[in-house]
Amino acid sequence: MSRTVSITLQNNDDARPIIEAIEEDNPDATVNVYPAMVKIDCAGRLIVRQSTVEEKLGRDWDVQELHLSVISLAGNVDEEDEYLELSWG
Protein backbone atom coordinates (compact mmCIF):
# COMPACT_ATOMS: atom_id res chain seq x y z
CA MET A 1 0.00 0.00 0.00
CA SER A 2 1.41 3.37 -1.06
CA ARG A 3 1.29 6.35 1.22
CA THR A 4 -0.33 9.45 -0.16
CA VAL A 5 1.75 12.49 -1.09
CA SER A 6 0.17 15.87 -1.68
CA ILE A 7 0.75 19.39 -2.85
CA THR A 8 -1.51 22.31 -2.02
CA LEU A 9 -1.38 25.37 -4.24
CA GLN A 10 -3.09 28.74 -4.18
CA ASN A 11 -6.21 28.80 -6.37
CA ASN A 12 -5.28 31.74 -8.60
CA ASP A 13 -4.37 32.54 -12.21
CA ASP A 14 -0.64 31.96 -11.62
CA ALA A 15 -1.17 28.45 -10.24
CA ARG A 16 -3.85 27.19 -12.66
CA PRO A 17 -1.40 26.22 -15.46
CA ILE A 18 0.73 24.39 -12.87
CA ILE A 19 -2.34 22.55 -11.58
CA GLU A 20 -3.29 21.57 -15.15
CA ALA A 21 0.24 20.27 -15.74
CA ILE A 22 0.17 18.25 -12.52
CA GLU A 23 -3.16 16.70 -13.52
CA GLU A 24 -1.74 15.78 -16.94
CA ASP A 25 1.46 14.26 -15.54
CA ASN A 26 -0.28 12.45 -12.67
CA PRO A 27 -3.52 10.96 -14.06
CA ASP A 28 -4.18 9.01 -10.85
CA ALA A 29 -4.06 12.15 -8.70
CA THR A 30 -7.14 13.40 -6.87
CA VAL A 31 -7.73 17.13 -7.22
CA ASN A 32 -9.77 18.90 -4.56
CA VAL A 33 -10.68 22.48 -5.43
CA TYR A 34 -11.51 24.93 -2.64
CA PRO A 35 -12.18 28.67 -2.89
CA ALA A 36 -8.63 29.71 -2.02
CA MET A 37 -6.58 26.57 -2.64
CA VAL A 38 -6.28 23.38 -4.65
CA LYS A 39 -5.08 20.23 -2.86
CA ILE A 40 -3.75 17.44 -5.05
CA ASP A 41 -3.27 13.99 -3.51
CA CYS A 42 -1.57 11.07 -5.20
CA ALA A 43 -0.68 7.59 -3.99
CA GLY A 44 3.06 6.99 -3.81
CA ARG A 45 4.52 9.66 -6.06
CA LEU A 46 3.64 12.99 -7.65
CA ILE A 47 5.73 14.87 -10.19
CA VAL A 48 5.68 18.45 -11.49
CA ARG A 49 7.51 18.56 -14.83
CA GLN A 50 9.02 21.80 -16.11
CA SER A 51 8.26 20.87 -19.74
CA THR A 52 4.54 20.29 -19.08
CA VAL A 53 4.15 23.55 -17.16
CA GLU A 54 5.97 25.40 -19.96
CA GLU A 55 3.50 23.93 -22.48
CA LYS A 56 0.58 25.20 -20.40
CA LEU A 57 2.12 28.64 -19.84
CA GLY A 58 3.54 29.11 -23.34
CA ARG A 59 6.80 30.42 -21.91
CA ASP A 60 9.94 29.30 -20.11
CA TRP A 61 9.29 28.34 -16.49
CA ASP A 62 11.77 27.74 -13.69
CA VAL A 63 10.75 24.99 -11.26
CA GLN A 64 11.66 27.41 -8.45
CA GLU A 65 8.63 29.52 -9.49
CA LEU A 66 6.45 26.74 -8.10
CA HIS A 67 7.27 27.89 -4.59
CA LEU A 68 5.46 31.20 -5.22
CA SER A 69 2.17 29.26 -5.36
CA VAL A 70 2.77 26.44 -2.85
CA ILE A 71 0.84 26.45 0.42
CA SER A 72 2.00 23.05 1.67
CA LEU A 73 3.67 19.79 0.66
CA ALA A 74 3.40 16.26 2.07
CA GLY A 75 6.20 13.88 1.10
CA ASN A 76 9.93 13.96 0.60
CA VAL A 77 10.99 16.50 -2.02
CA ASP A 78 13.37 15.72 -4.88
CA GLU A 79 13.88 18.93 -6.85
CA GLU A 80 16.01 19.29 -9.98
CA ASP A 81 16.08 21.85 -12.80
CA GLU A 82 13.55 19.80 -14.81
CA TYR A 83 11.12 18.61 -12.14
CA LEU A 84 9.93 18.53 -8.55
CA GLU A 85 8.94 15.10 -7.26
CA LEU A 86 7.17 14.14 -4.04
CA SER A 87 7.41 10.61 -2.67
CA TRP A 88 7.92 8.76 0.58
CA GLY A 89 10.63 6.51 -0.83
The fraction of residues in strands falls at 35-45%
Helix content: 10-25%
How many helices in DSSP terms?
Answer: 2
Walk across the major sheet and give the strand order: 2-3-1-5
For the sheet with most strands, the description reads: 4 strands, antiparallel
Given helix and strand content, the structural type is: alpha+beta
Please trace the helix and strand order, writing H or E for each element. Answer: EHEEEHEEE
- From the spread of the alpha carbons, the general shape counts as globular
- Report how far the terminal alpha carbons are from each other: 12 Å
Radius of gyration over all CA atoms, rounded: 12 Å
Give the low-confidence spans: none
The count of β-strands is 7
**Average pLDDT reading:** 97
List the helices and strands and how they pair.
Elements (H helix, E strand, L loop, with lengths): L3 E7 L5 H10 L4 E4 L3 E7 L1 E5 H8 L12 E5 L1 E4 L3 E5 L2
Helix pairs in contact: 1-2
Can you give keywords for this protein?
single chain, four-stranded antiparallel sheet, 2 helices, 89 residues, three-stranded antiparallel sheet, alpha+beta
Brief summary of the model shown:
The protein has 89 residues and is an alpha+beta fold.
Structure overview:
This protein has 89 residues and is an alpha+beta fold. The protein is 20% helix and 42% strand. It is built from 2 helices and 7 strands, in the order E-H-E-E-E-H-E-E-E. It has helices at residues 16-25, 50-57; strands at 4-10, 30-33, 37-43, 45-49, 70-74, 76-79, 83-87. The longest helix has 10 residues, at 16-25.
